[in-house]
């Protein structure tokens, strides 16, 4: 690997997730002497064990579901026979190069950055240790070390061969049955995808509902959709004990019931560890679960953080957005500070759950005059034609006359969301949105109805 012989750089990036890779490559292209460090694969979780391979799984699972919809709509297709090997091969060949990051490393070094594979730790201001070697950063250090699957303290779990997102994405074969601990984005997306390949799936959600961060109505639609795919959804009950007898998992739940399955997927949230990368040496509390950043993504003088570790939203688009902010700040370029009021997120289940900004409950906590409007998708012409279950919900700050949040649950919900993300980000007056022409018959036309129902 190319390393600078004198171990002195302008900027050192520890952890090369999507944002870190972007910071390192761009600053190198802009003439900075940059060292990028990663102890696994350049690009991080997203391309190898996250967004991209999981969306390949979902694309394939959606194709199966769509084929099954031919019956009663367009004729008969007979038995649809799923074959997971097509997905496993595509993930290996097209997404991950069999978990080899040579292309990404070459791309980074091709931009002029140096790269070291190893574990970086901040030794003090401007100093980074990588497995015994100290490197110096004249301008600063950028931390993008991301998260790992959080393993909940359930009795017996640690001693079992459970899966996290890594193992399920690397799986060449699927189990006959799967219990998923956690009904967040990962549990719902992957649970539904493999259920469509014939796996008997049970999602166990300790909180009161799946997708708890989103509108309750979104959880309701998704629960029904999962159940229609044969997924059993257990909400409001956590696991208390896990055992494995060599072939079968037994998961005991808090209500005394138990579940047996061939495999167990832990999708119970993510865990960042700022102290593990030495951020405690530059002022972050040792037991802090995130690295708090200001609106320039600064953690301390000469130290920036981007991505999941900042706690601003564990999404690739947040990591990349923050990377842009850091690049400008390091170079002293003009540009807006980081703002998160219009944070979009999409859970790629079928139907998709897209949301931006505040939910109704969050808005009511923060604002005194909140109005909401909801359009069931079945009341839009296109939703009715498509027999789509879902909704469009808008949340307005009635004092300012702008939307502060919105949710779209439905086919291509993440795409329909785009228009609402623009509205929330741009603080487009509701009156102006009402005066817009909405193409017929689109799903996004439901936005007009929802605005009309703001009450
Ligand atoms: C199954 C799954 C599906 C997802 N789907 C989506 C999606 O559809 N859309 C979306 O926006 N987000 C999705 N995410 C989230 C997304 O993957 C992350 O938000 C994204 O990867 C950004 O993370 P990050 O930039 O913080 O760094 P990460 O991607 O977590 O990368 C951090 C890198 O730092 C390395 N590292 C850690 N510590 C050190 C150290 N001390 N020294 C050197 N290297 C170190 C790690 O090995 C890793 O390579 C998904 C996540 C999962 C798990
Ligand atoms: N489409 C996307 O953008 C996408 C997809 C996947 C992941 N992600 C990102 O990754 C993050 C992590 O995903 P996640 O689904 O692991 O986390 P999550 O925090 O979204 O959901 C985890 C769920 O597990 C539950 N839980 C915790 N301990 C449990 C236990 N012992 N038993 C049963 N349930 C338990 C929690 O109540 C929570 O609802 C997401 O929040 C998101 O930011 C994004």
Defining traits:
22 strands, 455 residues, alpha/beta, five-stranded antiparallel beta sheet, FAD/NAD(P)-binding domain, 14 helices, eight-stranded mixed beta sheet, binds nicotinamide-adenine-dinucleotide, binds flavin-adenine dinucleotide, 3 domains, Enolase-like, domain 1
Total number of helical segments? 14
Termini separation: 61 Å
| Counted beta strands | 22
DSSP strand content: 15-25%
Poorly predicted regions are none
Bound molecules: flavin-adenine dinucleotide, nicotinamide-adenine-dinucleotide
CATH class group of the largest domain: Alpha Beta
Integer tally of domains:
3
| Structural class label | alpha/beta
Q: State the CATH superfamily name of the largest domain.
A: FAD/NAD(P)-binding domain
Anisotropy-based shape = globular
Second rung of CATH, namely the architecture of the largest domain: 3-Layer(bba) Sandwich
Secondary structure: elements and pairs:
Elements: E1 8-14, H1 18-29, E2 34-38, H2 45-49, H3 51-68, H4 84-96, H5 102-110, E3 114-117, E4 120-124, E5 127-130, E6 133-143, E7 148-149, H6 165-170, E8 177-181, H7 185-196, E9 200-205, H8 216-228, E10 232-235, E11 239-244, E12 249-253, E13 258-261, E14 263-266, E15 270-271, E16 298-300, E17 303-305, H9 316-331, E18 344-347, E19 352-357, H10 360-366, E20 370-376, H11 381-385, E21 391-397, E22 402-410, H12 413-426, H13 430-434, H14 446-452
Helix pairs in contact: 1-9, 3-4, 3-7
Structure description:
The chain is an alpha/beta fold. The protein folds into three domains: 5-43 and 101-147 and 272-331, FAD/NAD(P)-binding domain (3-Layer(bba) Sandwich), CATH 3.50.50.60; 157-268, FAD/NAD(P)-binding domain (3-Layer(bba) Sandwich), CATH 3.50.50.60; 344-452, Enolase-like, domain 1 (2-Layer Sandwich). It has helices at residues 18-29, 45-49, 51-68, 84-96, 102-110, 165-170, 185-196, 216-228, 316-331, 360-366, 381-385, 413-426, 430-434, 446-452, and strands at residues 8-14, 34-38, 114-117, 120-124, 127-130, 133-143, 148-149, 177-181, 200-205, 232-235, 239-244, 249-253, 258-261, 263-266, 270-271, 298-300, 303-305, 344-347, 352-357, 370-376, 391-397, 402-410. Helix 1 (18-29) runs parallel beside helix 9 (316-331), helix 3 (51-68) runs antiparallel to helix 4 (84-96) and helix 3 crosses helix 7. It starts with 7 loop residues before the first strand and ends with a helix. The structure holds flavin-adenine dinucleotide and nicotinamide-adenine-dinucleotide. Its EC number is 1.-.-.-. InterPro entries: FAD/NAD-bd_sf (IPR036188), FAD/NAD-binding_dom (IPR023753), FAD/NAD-linked_Rdtase_dimer_sf (IPR016156), Pyr_nuc-diS_OxRdtase (IPR001100), Pyr_nucl-diS_OxRdtase_dimer (IPR004099). Residues 9-323 form the FAD/NAD(P)-binding domain.
């Amino acid at each position: 690997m190319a390393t600078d012989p004198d171990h002195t750089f302008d900027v050192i990036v520890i952890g090369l997730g999507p944002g870190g890779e972007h910071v390192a490559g761009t600053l190198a292209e802009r003439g900075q002497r940059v060292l990028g460090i990663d102890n696994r694969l350049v690009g991080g979780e997203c391309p190898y064990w996250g967004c991209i391979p999981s969306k390949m799984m979902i694309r394939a699972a959606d194709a199966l579901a769509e084929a099954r919809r031919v019956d009663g709509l367009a004729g008969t297709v007979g038995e649809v026979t799923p074959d997971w090997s097509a997905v496993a091969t595509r993930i290996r060949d097209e997404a991950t190069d069999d978990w080899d990051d040579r292309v990404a490393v070459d791309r980074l070094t091709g931009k002029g950055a140096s790269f070291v594979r190893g574990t970086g730790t901040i030794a003090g201001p401007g100093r980074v240790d990588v497995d015994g070697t100290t490197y110096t950063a004249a301008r600063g250090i950028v931390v993008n070390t991301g998260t790992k699957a959080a393993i909940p303290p359930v009795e017996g779990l640690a001693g079992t061969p459970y899966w996290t997102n890594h193992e399920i994405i690397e799986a060449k074969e699927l189990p006959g049955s799967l219990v998923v601990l956690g009904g967040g984005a990962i549990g719902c997306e992957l649970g539904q995808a493999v259920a469509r390949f014939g796996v008997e799936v049970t999602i166990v959600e300790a909180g009161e509902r799946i997708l708890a961060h989103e509108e309750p109505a979104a959880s309701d639609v998704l629960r029904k959709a999962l159940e229609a795919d044969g997924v059993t959804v257990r909400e409001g009950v956590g696991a208390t004990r896990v055992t494995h007898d060599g072939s079968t998992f037994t998961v005991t739940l808090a209500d005394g019931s138990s579940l047996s399955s061939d495999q167990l997927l832990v999708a119970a949230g993510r865990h960042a560890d700022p102290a593990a990368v030495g951020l405690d040496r530059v002022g972050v509390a040792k037991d802090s679960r995130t690295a708090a950043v200001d609106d320039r993504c600064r953690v301390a003088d000469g130290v920036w953080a981007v991505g999941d570790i900042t706690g601003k939203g564990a999404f690739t688009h947040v990591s990349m957005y923050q990377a842009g902010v850091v690049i400008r700040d390091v170079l002293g370029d003009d540009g807006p500070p980081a703002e998160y009021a219009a944070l979009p997120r999409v859970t790629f289940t079928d139907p998709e759950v897209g949301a931006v900004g505040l939910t109704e409950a969050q808005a009511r906590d923060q604002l005194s005059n909140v109005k909401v409007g909801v359009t069931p998708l079945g009341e839009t012409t296109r939703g009715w034609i498509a027999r789509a279950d879902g909704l469009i919900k808008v949340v307005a700050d009635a004092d300012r006359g702008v939307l502060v949040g919105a949710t779209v649950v439905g086919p291509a919900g993440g795409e329909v969301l785009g228009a609402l993300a623009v509205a929330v980000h741009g603080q487009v007056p509701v009156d102006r949105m009402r005066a817009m022409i909405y193409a017929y018959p689109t799903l996004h036309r439901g936005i007009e109805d929802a605005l009309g129902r703001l009450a």
